[in-house]
Amino acid sequence: MKIDYLKNEVKKVLSAKRYEHSIRVLETALNLANIYGADPLKVGIAAILHDYAKEMNNLQIRDICEHFFKDETKDYMSVSEILHSFVGVYYAKEKFKIEDPDILNAIKYHTTGRKDMSLIEKIVYISDAIEPKREYPHVEKIRELALVNLDDAIFFEANRKIEYLIKSDSIIHLNSVDMRNHLLMTTAK
Ligand SMILES: [Fe+2]
Ligand SMILES: [Fe+2]
Q: Which ligand is nearest to the CA of 19?
């Protein structure tokens, strides 16, 4: 599968702003794939497709989640920020015939993360958080950490994200808490 073909498909369903975000995530992810020795094609496919479903209408998003990802999404049905990741997997499979579990999981967990992510999942997760136009407190530190140690970067980012979600009265997906706790116990501080 050609990345250029997928870029074009993504362009058809996203606003210019989000398309450009997807391109920056792709470039960030390919740089990290190079640093950490991950398969650039798999990383590239997951990165360009990660927000494919982000601008789909909410009814359609909920319908797909209820039919195909019921167990994983039933407690988060009002949170489109979480649901679009699952719908992205649906389209990756149905429209683009992608079956590689590493690519599908990188799309599925790009918002929440999860415990024991694969290298490709980690790269897509953190690239989404640090692409060059992202601006939030401490993003520079996360960018620096990502070039040296992905787990340290993800741990630091997850702590900041969880703090932000609490302060803004937002729901926190259990996968994010699980990932953060696991990294706390496994990465050297
Ligand atoms: Fe997303
Ligand atoms: Fe994104």
A: 2
